[in-house]
């Protein structure tokens, strides 16, 4: 037994549960960060389009007055 936990020997492969849990944790953190980035960029892009449309409408109605 090491300080990283029990090592399992399955058919010649040495498996350390600590590394499996650590890898799963890194993977979920990476996915959550990428998901957050995607949502932020999508909201920013949508708001940019909305603001451009508002500016176009404002300029159009300013010319009519």
Protein architecture, described:
By secondary structure, the chain is mostly helical. The protein has one domain. Helices cover 74% and strands 9% of the residues. Strands 1-2 form a two-stranded antiparallel sheet. β1 and β2 form a beta hairpin. The longest helix has 48 residues. The protein starts with 7 loop residues before the first strand and ends with a helix. The model has no long low-confidence stretch (mean pLDDT 86).
Which secondary structure elements does this structure contain, and how are they paired or packed?
Elements lengths: L7 E3 L2 E3 L1 H48 L1
Antiparallel strand pairs: 1-2
Provide tags for this entry.
mainly alpha, 65 residues, single chain, 1 helix, rod-shaped, two-stranded antiparallel ribbon, 9% strand
Q: Profile the largest sheet.
A: 2 strands, antiparallel
Secondary structure: number of strands: 2
User: Which overall shape is indicated by the principal axes computed on the Cα atoms?
Assistant: rod-shaped
Q: In angstroms, what is the radius of gyration?
A: 26 Å
């Amino acid at each position: 037994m090491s300080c990283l936990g029990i090592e399992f020997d399955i058919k010649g492969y040495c498996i350390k549960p600590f590394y499996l849990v650590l890898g799963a944790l890194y993977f979920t953190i990476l996915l959550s960060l990428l998901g957050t980035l995607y949502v932020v960029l999508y909201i920013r892009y949508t708001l940019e389009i909305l603001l451009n449309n508002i500016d176009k409408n404002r300029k159009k109605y300013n010319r009519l007055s």
